[in-house]
Amino acid sequence: MRMLEITDLDVRYGQIQALKGVTLHVEQGEIVTLLGANGAGKTTLMRTISGLLRPHSGDVQFLGKSIAHTSADRIVGLGISQVPEGRRVFPTLTVMENLILGGYTRPPAETSASVEEVLVLFPRLRERARQLAGTLSGGEQQMLAIGRAMISKPKLLLLDEPSLGLAPIVVRDIFRALRKIRTQGLTILLVEQNARMALKFADRGYVMETGKIALQGNAIELLESPEVQATYLGK
Ligand code: ATP
Predict the structure, then answer these.
(1) Phi and psi dihedrals of 109, rounded to 5?
(2) Domain ABC transporter, which positions (predicted)?
């Protein structure tokens, strides 16, 4: 059974058709990346999977069941967790409080075990456990946003542009942590502007253009594709 199966998905904002017949899938344990220029529809796709937007037509199936009309909080409960673009942490709560909130769908005892796992993954967050999230650096906020998403023990993690606006050295730390997460068997769908980083990390990728899938393949094929090199890798 596939982790995620999206079929002929159409999503609209009023008259604007943001997704036009998108079909893609993610297998269990895979890392799949979504590339594409600004406005291609990547965030719209992520928000539709997590239940924040409703499809006009087409379907989203998670582990064999349609979630196209399931509420966002039930989707978290089923095992999909999203780290939104712009790492929205609660700025006036501490790091620890932000993490605990990530466990709102689970019993408290399980949440504390997961918090401990996240603090092992991101030692920086342990050092700053009592600091207000709003005073963290951009990289630390991204770690916290990823950490918080991990607390709900997702089967599928949706990551929207984790490297956005971060220094290269911080991006490296984040991808190092994501590699560790990956060895725990988590499935990841990753939207990234940094195509090279994303394709080195992923197993497969899709390239979106104006609401459609323009190209797809395994990550190495895409890295070597002249079209991807010209448009996304600056070659
Ligand atoms: P970026 O990399 O810039 O985040 P993206 O690939 O994630 O881009 P989306 O944010 O999904 O693209 O946007 C897809 C299209 O839908 C764009 O044309 C955008 O202007 C439009 N759009 C997005 N959100 C809305 C909205 N709330 N209302 C109307 N149109 C929207």
Answers:
(1) -65, -40
(2) 4-235
